[in-house]
Amino acid sequence: MTPELKARLDDLLDQNKILVFMKGNKLMPQCGFSNNVVQILNTLGVPFETVDVLADGEIRQGIKEYSNWPTIPQVYIDGEFVGGSDVLIELYQNGELQQLVEVALAS
């Protein structure tokens, strides 16, 4: 990964408490897994931003390297990688996601 791309990703994560790297955007998810993540975050009623990896091949590949996670979507809360769709579903179902989000938004 280039230093420039790492800086871009760092900046995106610094600027957004909850950020989802996904296929499509929160208004038009382009895959079922991305849609699952958007629906969960909408259910929690929290502000979040998205980055469409389909619109930027460099970010699409770079974010996988950045997180050491091979799939999209990828969810970051307060700059920390949380996981993908399956992890988010599990955290939501056991109540941990709500706590993570509340702590992040309060800081």
Which key terms come to mind for this protein?
16% strand, 4-stranded mixed β-sheet, single chain, 107 residues, Glutaredoxin, 5 helices
Description of the structure:
- By secondary structure, the protein is of the alpha+beta class.
- It has a single domain, classed as Glutaredoxin (3-Layer(aba) Sandwich).
- The chain is built from 5 helices and 4 strands; from the N terminus they run αβαβαββαα.
- α2 runs parallel beside α4.
- The model has no long low-confidence stretch (mean pLDDT 96).
Spell out the blueprint of helices and strands.
Elements: H1 3-15, E1 18-22, H2 32-44, E2 49-52, H3 57-67, E3 74-77, E4 80-83, H4 85-93, H5 96-106
Parallel strand pairs: 1-2
Antiparallel strand pairs: 1-3, 3-4
Counted up, domains total 1
According to CATH, what is the class? Alpha Beta
Distinct helical segment count: 5
User: How does the helix and strand content classify structurally?
Assistant: alpha+beta
SSE run:
HEHEHEEHH
C-alpha Rg, in Å? Answer: 13 Å
Question: How are strands sequenced across the largest beta sheet?
Answer: 2-1-3-4
Q: Judging by the overall fold, what is the CATH architecture?
A: 3-Layer(aba) Sandwich
Portion in helices = 40-55%
Name given to the CATH homologous superfamily: Glutaredoxin
